[in-house]
Amino acid sequence: MDCTVRWTGPSGMTFVAETGSGHAVVIDGAPEGGGRNLGPRPMELVLAGTGGCTAYDVVLILRKSGQDIRGCDVQLRSERADTDPKVFTRIHFHFVVRGRNLKPNLVERAIKLSHDKYCSATAMIARTAEITIDWEIVED
């Protein structure tokens, strides 16, 4: 996996990340840090990537389990250290899984498998952050 991050120039703190799969993401800082708020902050992308990684796993596992899944949202709430490096110290994952006749034990199993076995991002984040999880099923 490759990625190139380029600073757009001396007028601010905006960067463009180009991924190996050919996608570009604008990254920027807060105005008080010299940014212009043109894109997410780097640590917001880490949090979003972690949520995307685990949601991907949960959907894939539930599909393979024969569940009629129609949606999966993950709301992440985080806390960071007060001093540098300001790593994540706590992250709460709240899953909202939508579908028809979803079996709660299979939803719980999919989430647990993602966090305990498959999600690389969660495995890395868990080295510095306490991770808590809850979930709900919404009949679709």
UniProtKB/TrEMBL annotation:
Superkingdom per UniProt: Bacteria
InterPro entries on file: KH_dom-like_a/b, OsmC/Ohr_fam, OsmC/Ohrsf
Name by which UniProt lists this protein: OsmC family protein
Originating organism: Zeimonas arvi
